[in-house]
Each structure stands twice: as C-alpha cells, then as structure tokens.
C-alpha cells in the first residue's frame, strides 16, 4: 500500500465536508496526509490559489517519481510499484 495525499481548500465553505479525512482514510492503507491549499472549494482552481495547488501537486509528483526504498512494502506492492510508469 502507498500513501494517499488529499488536497483540499483551507476555507471550509461546504459544511458537510468538515471531517479531516473526508472519508478517504478507509482507502489509505499505506498512510494518509492532508495538504491544504489557500481558498475555498469554489476558487481553489482560480488565480492565485491555483499556483499554490500546482506547485504543491508538482512537488508531490516529483517526490513520487524519485527513487524509493521499497523494503517497507509487501512483495505484491513492490511488484506493482516497480511495474508502474
């Protein structure tokens, strides 16, 4: 299992989604992190907030592409991770 990263708006305009994990933790067997981006649900993809989202997403993608220590993963996870692009 690999970690799940949830990007979410820092302003909680939608009151039904106040939970930190928003229901995602159940799918995050390899760990879970929440990264908050300035703005609310309606403007997180608008300037200037989208720049922060893009930079944070790029950093997470770069991290995922870097060589990893697969020793902590099960043999099945290692095989899947090594075969994925």
Can you characterise this structure?
- With 85 residues, this protein is α+β, with helices and mostly antiparallel strands.
- 31% of the residues lie in helices and 14% in strands.
- The protein is built from two helices and two strands.
- It has helices at 49-65, 75-83; strands at 4-9, 32-37.
- The protein has a two-stranded parallel sheet with strand order 1-2.
- The radius of gyration is 15 Å and the shape is flat.
- The two termini are 17 Å apart.
- Mean pLDDT is 77; it is low at 81-85.
Mean pLDDT, to the nearest integer, reads 77
Shape: flat
Biggest sheet, spatial arrangement of strands: 1-2
The end-to-end distance, rounded to whole angstroms, is: 17 Å
Poorly predicted tracts of residues: 81-85
Helical residue percent band:
25-40%
The amount of beta strand, in percent, is 5-15%
Q: Major sheet, described briefly?
A: 2 strands, parallel
Number of beta strands: 2
Radius of gyration of CA atoms, rounded to a whole number? 15 Å
- What structural class do you assign from the helix and strand content? alpha+beta
Total number of helices: 2
Task: Give me the strand/helix succession.
Answer: EEHH
Fold blueprint:
Elements: E1 4-9, E2 32-37, H1 49-65, H2 75-83
Parallel strand pairs: 1-2
Short synopsis of the structure:
This protein is of the alpha+beta class. The protein has two helices and two strands, in the order E-E-H-H.
């Amino acid at each position: 299992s690999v970690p799940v990263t949830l990007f979410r708006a820092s302003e909680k305009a939608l009151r039904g989604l106040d939970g930190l994990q928003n229901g995602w933790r159940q799918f995050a067997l390899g760990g879970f992190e929440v990264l908050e981006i300035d703005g609310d649900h309606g403007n997180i993809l608008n300037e200037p907030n989208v720049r922060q989202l893009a930079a944070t997403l790029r950093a997470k993608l770069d991290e995922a592409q870097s060589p990893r220590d697969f020793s902590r993963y099960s043999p099945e996870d290692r095989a899947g991770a090594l075969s994925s692009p």
